[in-house]
Amino acid sequence: GTGADNDLYINQAIVFIEDAIQYRSINHRVDSKSLWLYRWYYSRTCQWILSLTITIILALAFIEKPSSLTITSDVRYRLPAWNPPCGLTESIELLCFLVFMADVSVKSYLIGWEEFWKNKWLMAYILTLIVSLSDWIVSLSFFCTEGVRIRRILRPFFLLQNSSMMKKTLKSINSTLPEMASVLLLLAVHLSLFTMFAMLLFARTKDGQPDKEWVGYFRNLPDSLTSLLVLLTTANNPDVMIPAYSKNRAYSIFFILFTVLGNLFLMNLLTAIIYNQFRGYLLKSVQSSLFRRRLGIRAAFEVLSSLKETPANTQQSYVSIGALLRVLQKVEMDSRCKQAIMRSLKMCSCDQLSAAQFQKLFEELDKDAIKQHPPSPEYQSHFMQKMQFAFGHPYFGYLGNVVALANIVSICVVLVMDADKQPSERDDFFLGAINCFFILYYLLEMLLKILAMGLKRYLSYPSNRFDGLLTVILLILEIATFAVYGFPHPGWRPEFMGLLSLWDMVRLVNMLIVFRFLRIIPNMKFMALVVTTLLDLVKNLRAFAGILVVVFYAFAITGIMLFEGAVIPLGNIRLKFFIFIFLFQTSFYIKKVVVLYFKEKCDFMAFFDCFQAEVIYCLFYLLSVNLICRWAKIYFVAWWLISSVIWVNLFVALLLENFIHKWDRRCHREPLSDIEYQRTVELMFRDVLEEPTEEELMEKLHEHPHLQLCR
Amino acid sequence: GTGADNDLYINQAIVFIEDAIQYRSINHRVDSKSLWLYRWYYSRTCQWILSLTITIILALAFIEKPSSLTITSDVRYRLPAWNPPCGLTESIELLCFLVFMADVSVKSYLIGWEEFWKNKWLMAYILTLIVSLSDWIVSLSFFCTEGVRIRRILRPFFLLQNSSMMKKTLKSINSTLPEMASVLLLLAVHLSLFTMFAMLLFARTKDGQPDKEWVGYFRNLPDSLTSLLVLLTTANNPDVMIPAYSKNRAYSIFFILFTVLGNLFLMNLLTAIIYNQFRGYLLKSVQSSLFRRRLGIRAAFEVLSSLKETPANTQQSYVSIGALLRVLQKVEMDSRCKQAIMRSLKMCSCDQLSAAQFQKLFEELDKDAIKQHPPSPEYQSHFMQKMQFAFGHPYFGYLGNVVALANIVSICVVLVMDADKQPSERDDFFLGAINCFFILYYLLEMLLKILAMGLKRYLSYPSNRFDGLLTVILLILEIATFAVYGFPHPGWRPEFMGLLSLWDMVRLVNMLIVFRFLRIIPNMKFMALVVTTLLDLVKNLRAFAGILVVVFYAFAITGIMLFEGAVIPLGNIRLKFFIFIFLFQTSFYIKKVVVLYFKEKCDFMAFFDCFQAEVIYCLFYLLSVNLICRWAKIYFVAWWLISSVIWVNLFVALLLENFIHKWDRRCHREPLSDIEYQRTVELMFRDVLEEPTEEELMEKLHEHPHLQLCR
C-alpha cells in the first residue's frame, strides 16, 4: 500500500543520509528488511564487536606458543614465559573466524550478487577466511606442532579490510608505486654500476700484498653489493673506506661520489617524487569522499520526492519539509549538526525544498565544529568581581607559567648538585620542602581559576583540564608521601616503607612537575602552531599507521617462521624477535640491526658483553647458520626499504602537505582564541575541492543496482 | 657638444643593456670615464683575474705551514710534507690583498659616495681587508711563528662578496632564520625536558646496585644532554637504551617517545618549514632579478630617447631604430640573442620604437635557448641512402645499447668467476679477447653513425660526444696494450711492463666500458627526466655549494686553530684535520665523527687497529686533553647543525622545488627529442613571475643617484 511505500521511502532516506554522513557508498539493497539489516550492521554495537574481534585476533600473537612476554629482556635473569596449552588460542581463533564469516555474509548480502563480483576486497576477504580455516584444521590435526602457520601472516588483512580510510590510503600508495619503482630501479642501477666499479678498483692485486679493502668489503659480488647497500644507509660510513683511504687519499673520491649521488640525490629525489605523487592522490581521495556525501544526500532527496504525499510536479521535484523532519528525527548524527539543520529548516518560510535547497541544508555537515565555552559566573559582590577580574586575567596564567619554570629550575639545580654525591649523602629535605611549597601554589592557582571562571568554563579548556588533573595527582602523591614518611625536616632520609621508597616518590613527583610544564605550549604562538599541526597529523596518520601495523605484523610473523629453525636452540625467544622489531618500528633501529647483522667479522663475546640484548643472539645465531644467511639478508633489506625508505618518505610527504596547508591558512586568518577548529583531512582541502555537478550525481544515481527512480 | 652628448648616451645605453643581461644593478656612475672604467672592470679579463686571485688565496690553506698534502693518510708510512719557508705564502697573500684593494676601490668609486655608505657588503669588504692586512703585518713581525691567524678565517669572505647569486641566496637563508630558530628552540626545549626526565628516571638508586644506564649515559647533566643529542642523530641508537631495556622493557617507551617526537616529527618539521619558507624567498629573489633586467632595458630606452637626433615628441618618447642598431653592435651579449633581436628589428616596418616595443624586443633574453642540430648529409647513391636509413635509425642505437649491456654482463661474469681465484691462477686471455671484440664493435658503430649523420650532426648530440670520446680512449688503450703486451692468446699473463701492468690496463678498460654504459640514460624516459633534474639542480646549486664552502672553510680553519695545542705532539697533522672534514663535507660523515668523539669509553688501541686514520688520533688526543673537551663538543655540535640539519634541509627544499616544477612542466608539454632546453632558476619560475609596471620602473629610474632624466 501507499503507507508501506511511504515508510520504505522514509527509511531509505534515513539510510542514505547516514551513508552521506559516514562517506559510505550507497550501492546497497534498499528493501525494508535489508535496510533494517544494514542499519543494524552499521550500528555502534555491531561495529564495536567487529573491532574487538580484530583486536583479539591480532593480539593473539603476544600469547601464542613462541611467547616471551616477560619484564626483563635479559635471557640470563628471565623466568620462562607462560605457554598456553594446545587448543586455547585455537578456540579463540575459531570464535573470531565465526564472527568474520557472519560479517562477510552480511556484507555480501547487502551489496547484492552483481556488486559482489565486482568487489575485489570482499572476494579477498572470503579467500582469506577459507585459507585461514583450512590452516586452522591442519594445525589442530597436528596437535599444534606444525611450524608453518600461514593464517598468522594473513591476520592483518582483517584489520585492513575493515577500514575504508586504510583501503583508500592503500589505493593512493598503490598509485604512487610506478614512480617509486622507477626511482628504486635507478637506485639499483646506481648500486650495480658502482659495485662493478668497486670490484674493478679494489681487485686483489697480483703482487701478493694483503689488500685490506678487498678482504674486508669487496671480496666477491654479494659482499661488494652488501657493502655498498649498507653504505647507502650511511651505517658503515666511514669504516668501509678507511683501508682504501689510508692507502691513497684519491680512493675517497669513489666513496664520496657514491654517497653524494645515492644518498643526497637519489634518496631525496624519492622524497620529492613521493611528495609530488602523493599530494595529488590524497586530494583525489578526498574528492571522491565529497562525491559520496553529495550522492547520499541527493539519493535521499530523490526517494523523498517520490513520496505520495508530495504534489506531483512535472517540471521539478520537491521534498516537503514535514517528510524531511520525520527523517531527521530518526537519523543518527552529531547532535550539533542536527540542531543546526533543524534551525535552518524552521527559519525557511516555504514548505517545500528543491534539490539545491536540500543539498544546501546538509552543507552544515562539512563545516568546522565551532566550540563555544560556557560563560563565567556573574558575581554580585564588588569584591568578588575584582577577584574574578584579577584571577581570570591572562597575566595570572603567565604568573603560573613563571612559577612552573622556577620549579623546573629548582629541580634542575638540585639534580646537578646531587649528581656526584653518593646516595647515602643525599639530603631529600630541600627538594621535599620546595616541592611541597610549589604544589600548594598550584592548588591555590587551580582553585582561584575555578572561582574566577566557574567550574564548567574552567573544564571546557583542554589546557586547564591537563593542568588540573596533574595538580590533583601531585596533591594526592604529596599527601601519600606525608602519610607514609611524615613531614619533611632536615636530614629527612627514612627507610623504605609502603609501595615506593621516599626517593621514588620524590622522583615521580618531579617527573609529573616536568610534565606539567608542557602547559606553557598554548601560550607560545609558534609552538602552538607546531603542536596543533602535529596533533592534526596524528589524526590523519591513523590510516598510515594502520597500514604500517599491517605490513609490520606480516613481516614479523614471516620473520618468526623464517628464522624458526635457526633460533630454536636458544629457547622460545622467537616472538621476542617480533616484539623487538615492534618496539623499534621506527626506521632508525633497523639501520643498526642491518649493520650489526652485516658485520660478520665481529667477535661474538665482545658484542655479548656490550649489548646483552637477545636480538644480538638471534642475529649472530642466524649468521652462524649459513643456509638462512641469504634469506635473512633479503628479509632485512626488504624491511629497510619499506620502513625506512618508503614509509618515512610517505610520512614526510604527509607532514609537508599538512604543514604547508596549515601555514597558508594561518596567514589568511588569525586564529581567534575562543574558537577551536576541528580539522580533518577533508576540511584541509576544502578550498580546492570541486563540487560534483547535478548531471554527474544523477548519472551515478541511475546506475544504482537496487534503486529504481521513477524518472 | 651634441656629438659628445650623443656618444655618452649611446655608451650609457650599451652599459645599461649589459647590466640588464647580467642582472646587475644600474646604480653606478654614468659619465664617460666611469662608463669606460665600468666596462673594463666587468670585462672578462678583469673578472677572470679576480676569480683567480680568490682561488689562489683560498688554495693557500693546502700548502701553508701545517700542511699534510701526501698521498697516503697513514701516519706510519708517510713522509713529512713540504713546509714552505716563512714569507713565501705571505708574499702571495700580499699580492692577493693588493688585487682586492684595487677591486674595492674601483667598486666604491663606480657606485659613488652616497651609495657607498648604504652598501654594507662594500663596508664589510673594506673592514675585512683592513683586519687581514693588520694580521698580515703582525704575522710577518713575528716571523710566522704566531698561532692565531684571524685572516685565514676571514678568507672565504672574498669568495662570498664576489658572487651576487651567493649574496642573494644568503639573504634568502637569512630570512628563513627566524622560523628555523623557532624549530631549533623547540628542539632545545624537547631535548632539555627529556634530559630532566632521563635524569629522574635513570637516577642512581639508593640500594647500591650498579646501574649501567646511569653509569654509561646519564651520570650528570652534560652527559645526559650529550647522550640524548647524539640519540637525535640516531647514531648511538640502540646502544643508549640497551642497559635500561634489558632491565625493564617498559624503559624503551621513553626512548621511543623521544626518537619519534624529536627525529620523526621535529626534524621533518624543520624540512617542511625550510621548504615552505625558502620556496617563497627563492621566488622573490628571482622576481627582483627580473626587475633589474627590465629596469636596465628601460634605462637604456630613456637615455636613447633623449638623443638629439630623435624628433622631440611631447606626448611619448621614442627611440630611433638606427640608434638602437648602433648600440646593439657594441653590446657584448650572446650571439644567438643578438641575431634574433637584429632579425626582429629588420622585420619591424616602422623606424621608431615605443617603450613597450623596445621592452618586447629584449624579451628574447628571457627565452629558452633552442638548439637546432645540423642536418644529415644527403647522399646521391641509392645504396648510401639505404645505409643512412639503417644506421641513422633509433633501432641501431638500441642495438648498441644491447651490445654494451652484453659487454657489462660478460665483465660481471668474469669478475664473479675470478673472485675466488688466486691472482696467479687468473687467465687474462678471455677478458682481453672479449673486450677486443666489443671495442671493435664500438668503433664500427661510431663510424657508421658518423657516416649516416655526418660528423657535425653526430657531434651536436651530447650523448654521441660522450660515446665517441670514450670509444676513442678505449681504442687508444687497447692499441697501447697490444703494443706493449702483444695480441691476446690463451695463457696470456705477461710480466709488468711499461707504465701499467696488463691487469691494470684491463681493469682500466673495463672501468671505462662500465662508464660508457651510462649512454643508455637518454633512452629511458624517466631516467632522462631524473638526470636532467639533477643537472639543473647542480646548476642552481652553485650558490649553495659556494656558501657551504665558505662556512666549511671558516669552520676548518677555526678547528685547526682551536685544536692546535692539542694536536702538536702528533706532528703537523693539523691541516689533515681540515682536509679530512673537507673530503667528508657530506653530513653523513660528521655524524660518525661525533659519535666516535663521544664514545669516551672506547679502547684507544682497538680503534687504532680498526681505522688507522689520523682523524682518530686527533679526536682521541682531544679527549685526553680535558681542557678542550667542551670546546670540541660545541664545535662538533655546531658543525652538525649547520651541515647535517640546515644545509641538507635546504638542499631537500631546493630539490623538491626543482623537481615539482619540472614534473608539472613535463605533464604540460611533452619534450621533443630534437629540442633541448637550457633551464636556469629564472626560467623555472617564469610562469609565476609578475612583470613590473611602468610606474614602478620610472619611479626607480628617477631615484637613480647619477642619471638625470630630462622629464
TrEMBL record, chains A, B:
Record's keyword terms, sorted: Calcium, Calcium channel, Calcium transport, Endosome, Glycoprotein, Ion channel, Ion transport, Lysosome, Membrane, Repeat, Transmembrane, Transmembrane helix, Transport, Voltage-gated channel
Main location: membrane
Pfam families xrefs: Ion_trans
SUPFAM superfamilies to which the protein is assigned, alphabetical: Voltage-gated potassium channels
Highest rank taxon of the organism: Eukaryota
Topological type in the membrane: Multi-pass membrane protein
GO CC terms in record: late endosome membrane; lysosomal membrane; monoatomic ion channel complex
Gene Ontology BP term (one): endocytosis involved in viral entry into host cell
Location in or out of the cell: Late endosome membrane; Lysosome membrane
TM region(s), chain numbering: 41-63, 84-102, 122-145, 181-203, 250-275, 395-417, 429-448, 469-488, 508-531, 543-563, 575-598, 610-628, 634-656
Family listed: Belongs to the calcium channel alpha-1 subunit (TC 1.A.1.11) family. Two pore calcium channel subfamily.
Entry protein name: Two pore channel protein 2
